[in-house]
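Step 1: inspect the first sequence and its tokens.
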Amino acid sequence: MRRGADPLLALVESYINEHLRRVRGASAHTVRAYGHALRLFFLFLARRTRRSVSDLRLDDITVESVLAFLDDLELTRGNAAGTRNCRLAAVRGLVEHLLRHDLSRAKQYQRILSIRAKKARGRMVAYLEPEQVRAILAQPDRGTPTGLRDYALLVFLYNTGARVSEALALTPADVHRAALRPRHVRVRGKGDKERLCPLWPGTSSALARLTADENALSGPVFRSARGAPLTRDGVAYLLAKYVRLAAKEMPNLLRQRVTPHVLRHSCAVALLQAGVDVTVIRDYLGHASIATTSRYLSTNVKMKRDVLNAFWRRAGLTRKPAGRWRPTPNLLAFLSSL
């Protein structure tokens, strides 16, 4: 978009650079997601007004255009309600910024801000049982540099419950904390918030071996074979490869969609199964709200079964199994008496 008399471009730039990055401290992933949503919105406005994106004005951002954009997301692009709500949040964030800097159109912006998120159907959280994760972790050949990297990455994701972006941002300076007792690393989460995550001895050992090379003292820990930083797609690719290998012994893995984020869910569920308090898990995973962590309570079938069995015993309804029937010497006499 080229600069003109209308301040739309300048306000969009200040929203991204000043508000999201500096004021809110949003992560690079959040900035990309909001930027992508706004790009879709402005492209839609250009088609709707039959003008180029560079000719769009603040007056084009109306409640009618936003509602039409949301309908287009669902009907044309096939977005689910959850995706629609995320993109509405990006538009609302921009409009709130416009309201702070353009009071002359306050009524126009307030009407947009009155749009509420669409009720989305909650989805069950997908996770793996510990034996499934162990089967996947057994696949990388730790005797090779690539296999060691893959094992260290996967066991780190499961051990800490880190997001992929957090794992890819890990530096040797963070990993060197693993030499301390108890072993732990520093993880940078959303909004550049930091948390300390404890490490299993095996995770610590793998990370120490991975960062032992003097050439790996700077930049990210997890790199491609060519030395470039590993990407999100690269992590998904190598995880899928090891899932296929593990599925030879555990075919049920093929019926699940295993992504790097599923390892994060699997970590949370395993902690719940171990009896860890949900507030501790919230801090362990870096959740902003306990409500996010509580999703795992409704997902874990094993915990529900354990609760039901405990309820059954507490209610006093447990019966001893009936003894096996055996014939008696008086069987014929009994039958004759019928």
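Step 2: inspect the second sequence and its tokens, then contrast the two.
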Amino acid sequence: MNVLKYSAFSYRNLKEIEIFPAEGVNVIYGENGQGKTNLIESIWLFTGCHSFRTHRINELIERGKSSAKIELDFFASGREQTATLKIENKREATLNGIAKKSPRTLLGLFNAVVFSPSTMSIIKDGPAERRKFLDIAISLTKPVYAFELSKYLKIVGQRNALLKQIAAGKFDTDMLAPWDEQLAVTGAKIIDYRVKYINSLSGIAADIYDGIAQGKEKMSLSYIHSDGNEKENKELLQVLYDTLEKTRKSDVKRLATGVGPHKDDLEIKINGMSARSYGSQGQQRSCALALKLGEAAIIKKITGEQPVALLDDVMSELDGNRQNYLLKYLGDWQVFITCCDPSHLMRLNGAKAFEVKSGVIKEIS
């Protein structure tokens, strides 16, 4: 899988541009604030996911303009394809000239993995960031998961609204029973997807971390249920329903649903210790790198195609050993790397360089 041509019109600060990337490394360089990350972000949108920077549509459009448009010619599934995103009041997608119901329908058609400074939040921040990592990673290879997750979160919202009415004395807690049943059914599916994904990811990420750390440390992953109970797959639905039933009164007091996959976590350990609490800066970076490279490996295993690697301003954050490992690992991928100084990357065979200045991109020969 690789990008053949990219064009943008009024996307953030990007002017009317068109580039033809190399099949290998593409170095996107320039001073800060010139538009390098905007390019990476816009390519990522063709995965069918939201921006990794904002959920506000208007922020994706150049100031003073009413709409933006980005287009990607790419090779995937054995043929050349063209995807277009028009951004106005919402995002509208077309694939090979055919209008799509929503950009979400692009999930699984163009695959990419993005690594940016914000990726560290997976390790450093709270459970919500790790759930977000899992949800995006699974959706890229299992689009039906995104549908199930959306349905689950809507049910949680409806149950929470009912909890507030119960707290106000309008209804009895028995009214929660049908919502608990729906949550248990959909929540069990979400947990099952996540546990299976972590089981696949854990060995791959551990091997990658072992390579980065040169065998000095061991990384491990485990799924943490919000109710503290380990569950067998066959018991997921019943245990989740029973737990929701038991916590109804406490949920009414807090006015929110306190257990379920929307509260679960991914635990990341180094030598049996929490990477978040006890890992050094270097160890945490290595964990984040191992997770993202592991995510890419799973995409390739399932689809048979290597995803496009989008590296936004991360090389300067890695020491020499991690830089060398990353570039070696990505040796046969199509890669987009943003940086301020391209000199240390231009030695790579077949690399193309693109300078970004005030939203204008030009290839440097």
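Step 3: confirm your contrast with the notes below.
DSSP finds ten helices and 15 strands in the chain. The mean pLDDT is 92.
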